[in-house]
Amino acid sequence: MNKVILLGRLTKDPDIRYSQANNFKVANFTLAVNRKFVKEGEERQADFINIVAFSKLAEFVEKYLKQGLQISLCGRLQTRTYDDNNGQRRYITEVISEEIYFADSLKKQQADESVLFSSTPVNSTNKQNANSNEESTMLPDEFYASDDLPF
Fold it and tell me: What are phi and psi of 47, to 5 degrees?
């Protein structure tokens, strides 16, 4: 079985391109995944893992993912080889993503966006009114009033 499950943050905005053979969308990005343990007196270490998404999932990545966003994903590990310009054989190990989920809370994303795009805080109601021409999937503020889990 070849199954990878990761939780981490994008190190930069995804790189979007089209495949040469089939002309479908390909998204490449790197995920910084913190290691579980920290040695005493040292900073937390992270692994930087190359991720690839194809077709519809690449479209999702292009539309919704950006640097710093925390996501979780499921996929499979793949190793491939190629010969560089000097004739040296190079190996690349990457995760081919099959599922991607948002791991940041919606409240945190809204707060980050208000800091990035506005000098005054923006709540979800104002955002809905500002984007009235676009389809909105925002839930009312009351839905996010408590961070307590029901179980």
Answer: -105, 140
